[in-house]
Design brief:
The protein has 15 helices and 2 strands. The protein is mainly α. Helix 7 packs antiparallel against helix 12, helix 7 runs parallel beside helix 13 and helix 10 crosses helix 11.
């Protein structure tokens, strides 16, 4: 018996040691989900190109789509070179550091929570790409492509990366204050939406607006884009749990619920206000519901998500109507949907949070004040820096294409191409 124990003990020790080592590695289920989520968020980019591309006139369909694909290229490189390091490297209260330039210091064995850090880098990189692309909805059909490319590079570096660090980075001051932003209501949608409004105001109206009708040239394309955005948003929101557990399941459920409710309430609002529901309104309502639930996806129950989605359609429909009242030309409603929706979603999170955090309905008034602080600070910072960038670029590169080029269409004048050859 003693001899048998001597033989079995080393084997038992080896097995226990192997189990312990395995436990220190990444969780394969979480890793697989996050890889899929990263790919889902990437699908949102061509979805956005279709969504925006269908809403412009046919002479600008390629130039509008190029705004999104240019962001995929430019910010895809910026994020690996230094964007990730500024957002998540270091522990400063306002900005990260230079510890992870070109992803230095990260290896296949590096972990962030239960997933490889490389997966976390790429997942967050998809957020960094889509955020400036959202801004392009306000500049469609009239901004110089070269200036746009420089602008999104500078804006991502000076606006997105610091805001990302404030809310999600180690040591970020809004994170320390207790701000809730599950998947980017303030970081992504509010910042891009208010920046879009600034650009629309500085650029001015398109030639002929609002007297000339500028109807979408291909609404089936826009509807397809909205469908791809809805599909990809499951990775956007549920992936922000950074695991494949219950939090991801909740975020998945609230995302679906709010998107459906947003589409329904927008259609009803338009039916009541304009007499008929439109396909464009249904697509816009889907996106509005998705935007509003984004900061709250893992913090609210499906019942509150339903209420937030219903409110999203109404609030964002009103936000889009503002451009007609005040006369600015937000070409594709980037501010009305993302700016207004992002702000309301952040505030609503402070009201309805009951899972993993408490909001106003649970008696936590302080959380609502923190959310308001995040909206004011994040939105104000984005506005100020955007205006400074526009001033500098306007003096050096120029912001707007020539009038003849605008009349011809940016597909030909900026890219020497046409979307359709009839």
């Amino acid at each position: 018996m003693t001899r048998l124990l001597k033989l079995l003990l080393p084997l038992l020790f080896f097995l226990l040691s192997s189990s312990a080592l395995a436990a220190e590695g990444p969780d394969t289920g979480d890793t697989a989900w996050m890889l899929v989520s990263s790919a889902l968020v990437l699908v949102m980019l061509p979805g956005l190109a279709l969504f925006y591309g269908g809403m412009v006139r046919s002479k600008n369909v390629l130039s509008t789509s190029m705004h999104t694909f240019a962001a995929m290229a430019i910010i895809g490189v910026q994020w690996v070179a230094f964007g990730y390091s500024l957002a998540f490297g270091g522990e400063g209260s306002l900005i990260g550091g230079f510890d992870n330039l070109f992803l230095r210091g990260i290896t296949p064995e590096s972990l962030t929570g239960t997933i490889p850090t490389y997966v976390f880098v790429i997942f967050q990189g998809m957020f960094a790409i889509i955020t400036p692309a959202l801004i392009s909805g306000a500049v469609a059909e009239r901004m110089k492509f070269s200036t746009y490319c420089v602008f999104i590079l500078l804006w991502s570096t000076l606006v997105y990366d610091p805001l990302c660090h404030w809310v999600w980075g180690s040591g970020g001051w809004l994170a320390a204050a207790g701000a809730l932003d599950f998947a980017g209501g303030t970081v992504v949608h509010l910042s891009s939406g208010v920046s879009a409004l600034m650009i629309a105001l500085i650029l001015g109206k398109r030639i002929g607006y609002p007297h000339e009708r500028m109807t979408p040239h291909n609404l089936p394309m826009t509807l397809l884009g909205a469908g791809l955005l809805w599909f990809g948003w499951f990775g956007f929101n549920a992936g922000s749990a950074l695991s494949s557990g219950g939090s991801a399941a909740l975020a998945f459920t609230t995302t679906q619920t709010a998107a459906a409710a947003g589409a329904l309430s927008w259609m009803l609002a338009e039916w009541f206000h304009a007499g008929k529901p439109s396909a464009l309104g249904a697509a816009s309502g889907i996106v509005a519901g998705l935007v509003v639930i984004t900061p709250a996806a893992g913090f609210v129950t499906p019942g509150w998500a339903l209420l937030m989605g219903l409110s999203a359609g109404l609030v964002c429909y009103g936000g889009v109507m503002m451009k007609h009242r005040f006369g600015y030309d937000d070409s594709l409603d980037a501010f009305g949907v993302h700016g207004i929706g992002g702000a309301w979603g952040a505030i609503a999170t402070g009201i309805f949070a009951t899972v993993g955090a408490t909001g106003l309905i649970a008696g936590n008034v302080h959380q609502l004040w923190v959310q308001l602080l995040g909206v004011v600070a994040g939105g104000g910072y984005a506005i100020v820096v955007t205006l400074l960038l526009l001033f500098v670029l306007g003096k050096t590169m120029g912001l707007r294409v020539e009038k003849d080029d605008e009349r011809m269409g940016l597909d030909q004048s900026s890219h020497s191409e046409t979307g359709y050859n009839y």
